[in-house]
Design a protein that fits this description.
Elements (H helix, E strand, L loop, with lengths): L1 H12 L5 E2 L8 H18 L6 H10 L9 E10 L2 E8 L4 E7 H6 L1
Length: about 110
């Protein structure tokens, strides 16, 4: 799984658009959509990515944005660069997935 994150970071740094490590929609795709929406809104407001999942949860709560993370056994947020953020997760049912978002995705919306 770690090599997929490295691959996603390399592709995003090369200028590729958002990359799904596992096709989205995937497991709990509505929840994955909530995470992506919260990340994009956070980036648009603060002009940087959140540094932790807790920071993203706080922002979602303060802005009354839906963000239900109860279906995840593990959720990790990393920043391969200032322009990209990568999320990798394991659901409580054991399904693995992840995606990365670049600054370009913020400006396309």
């Amino acid at each position: 799984m770690r090599w997929q994150g490295v691959l996603a970071a390399l592709l995003l740094l090369s200028g590729a658009p958002a990359l799904a490590l596992e096709p989205v929609p995937g497991p709990d795709s509505a929840i994955v959509g909530q995470i992506e929406s919260a990340l994009l809104a956070y980036r648009d407001y603060y002009r940087q990515w959140p540094s932790t999942v807790v920071q993203l949860q706080w922002y979602a709560q303060q802005t009354r944005r839906p963000l239900d993370l109860s279906g995840f056994a593990n959720l990790g947020l990393t920043q391969p660069s200032a322009q990209t953020v990568s999320i990798e997760y394991i659901t409580k049912t054991g399904e693995h997935g992840g995606f990365a978002i670049s600054v370009r995705d913020v400006h396309r919306r």
